[in-house]
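Shapes recur. Our protein:

. . .
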Amino acid sequence: MNIVHTEASCGWGGQEIRILEESRGMLARGHQVVVLCPPESRIFAEAKRRGIPVEALPIGRKNLKGFFALRRWLATHPADVINTHSSTDSWLAALACKTLHDAPPIVRTRHISAPIPANRASRWLYTHAVRHVATTGESLRQTLIRHNRFPAKQITSVPTGIDASRFAPTADKAAMRHALGLDPARRYLGIVATLRSWKGHLFLLDAFASLAKDHPDLILLIVGEGPMRNVIEDKIAELHLADRVQLAGQQDRPEDWLKALDVFCLPSYANEGVPQAVLQAMLTGLPIVSTPVGAITEAIADGKTGLIVPPKDSQALAAAISRLLDDAVMANSLGAQAREDAINRFGFEHMLDRMETIFRAAVEPL
């Protein structure tokens, strides 16, 4: 198939990474793939760096410039299916295809749990302009069915697949820490996530502040970059944690940083599907503390493959982290079960199989 991905977002996170990883997998299966995105976006530079075909179009905003640019491109380039990923490019693609003769079908991937407006325009987009919707979790799918009353047969849950060989436990955490410039003698609590408000970094810092005295060897490692960095730095200073928190920034090999951790935490309070960072931590065999937001509990079963606490509750967060730090047997058991579960349910090839099936069905004549 000839698959076209569109992405209007200029940000960087799990959504953009999934697009590129899925594209890589489809290219390896013999499909033609191209990503259309704004020239100033991070995904444009990353696609080029990774050798994934990409073209720059001014589709970062809902305006006539973006509409005509995408329409011209589609009119002159053959495509079997268009996979859209954000609101802006979904609307631009829908309107462009509406004005083209014999336009390719659209598959809309919904990566986050933010609500869709219950209005006529959104209903037209999701039930008429789009041939099928893929969500990154079953709870997101159920929300579209129950809240928006979109047809269930047009929506499929396809969680992001992760390469289990890349994310795997290490037998020597000390050596990994040494390689990363970390102190092998310390213990590390960590989060790997874009620095956005809803990822819950500020609540994690409050929780860590209450843990720090009872766990003098514990360091909080924050991996990622984003618009909340200055706010997070101010919070660290306010809590007098500068010597106990390390901001590692964006890392090309998150697997190495996960392997250095003792406990992983993602205290998100909004906008999640099944986060890639949670799946990566599961495959790394880490004990995990997270929240029941979006589709997280489709990956983490409380007490079996991790611990689930209420969102925006720093005290509950601190208590769960402390349990894992103080009970090595429980921590190891949760981590081992998490890896086994992730291998069985969130494999990379399984994701490609399901998206391939959706694309082929979309291409078939109605």
Q: What stands out?
A: The CA atoms of residues 62 and 88 lie 6 Å apart. The mean pLDDT is 96. The first helix runs from residue 14 to 28. The chain is about 45% helix and 15% strand.
